[in-house]
Amino acid sequence: MKCYKNYLFFFTLFFSASCSYITGPEGLFPEKKDDFFEERLSPDLKLSSPDVLINKDDHYPPINQDINAVSVQDIPAPRQIFSSGGSNEVQLRRLGELMWVYIETLPSTSWPIAKNYFETSSMSIIESDPDAGIMLIKFSDLINFKITIEHGIKEASTEIFLSQYSNDEEVSMDQDVQFIQDELEKIVEFFASSAASFSGTSLAAQNLNDRKKAKIFNINDQTIIELNLGFDRAWSAVTRALKAGNITSNDIDRDSGIFLVSYSVESESSGWFSFLNFNNDDKGNDSLLLGEAAEFKILLESKNDKTNILVESLDGEEEAAEDLLSKINELLS
C-alpha cells in the first residue's frame, strides 16, 4: 500500500511538471491571450520620393467637432435567405369562383416570401400590414391588388388570397376569375421554385400564426372540431380529408351535412380500424369494402360563418368515434 502511494505521488508530481513544461510561460506551447499588451506601432515608412503618397482608409473615424456623424447609411439591407431540409407542398386550390394558394408552412414564413415576390416583380407595394396579413399592390395605372395571408386549416399552413380593385375608390370592379387565377399561378410558381429552401420567419407577422382556422373543444363529453369557415369550404375540406385517408363514405347527404362511413369486414385482418388506414404506405392492405349498414356518422353544423364537425358511432363505439375524428383533424387542409 505504501508503495502504491509513492507511485501515485511521483505520477502526480510528474503530471504537474509536464503540464507546466507544455503550457507554462516557459513551456513548448505558452498561452498567447495576453500578447496584445506587448504590441507596438511600427515607425512610419520612409518613402524614396515625396511625390509618392500612401492613402489611409479609416473605417472608424472618431466623431468630433470636425466630423459629423452619418445619420442615414445608404446601404441596402441584405436579402433574407431561407434554407430547409424538408419539402413544402404548394397548391392552387379552387372552390367555385373562390381561389387561393395553399402552402404547408407558417404564415410568418410565407409573409416575407410573398413580399419578396412583389418586390422583385414589376409591381410595387403600396402598403403592407404584417399584423393583419394584408398587402396592397399596384398592378397598373388602373388596377390594384389586395393580398391577404391567413393561417390555413392544417397546422403550420398558409392560405393566400388575391382580389382586384380599381385605383379609383369610387369605381367598383368585378372580379375577373381567369385573371386572378393567372396571377395566383405565378405566386404558386414562385413559392414552388423555393419550396425546399425557405424556413425564415417574419417577427412582425408572428401574430398570424395564432389565428388558426381549426380549433378542437369538448362539450358534454363530445369532442368537436370548429372550423372558422362557411359550410361550402368546410364540406370540401372534410371531403378532401376522407379521400386523403382512404375513408370511403357509403352515403352522403350534403343538404343535411352528413357523411356515413363503415369499416370493411373483409379487411379486419389488418385491424378493426382498417377503414382509418393509418398506414397509407402499406400497399398490401385490402381496399375498403363497405358493409350495408353505416357504423359512423360525420356531421357538419354551420352557424355564424363557422362550421362544427362531429363524429357519432352508430354502434356505441365512442372511443372509435374519437379516433375517427382525430384522424379527420389530422388530414384537414
From TrEMBL:
<dbReference type="InterPro" id="IPR042268">
    <property type="entry name" value="BamC_C"/>
</dbReference>
<protein>
    <submittedName>
        <fullName>Outer membrane protein assembly factor BamC</fullName>
    </submittedName>
</protein>
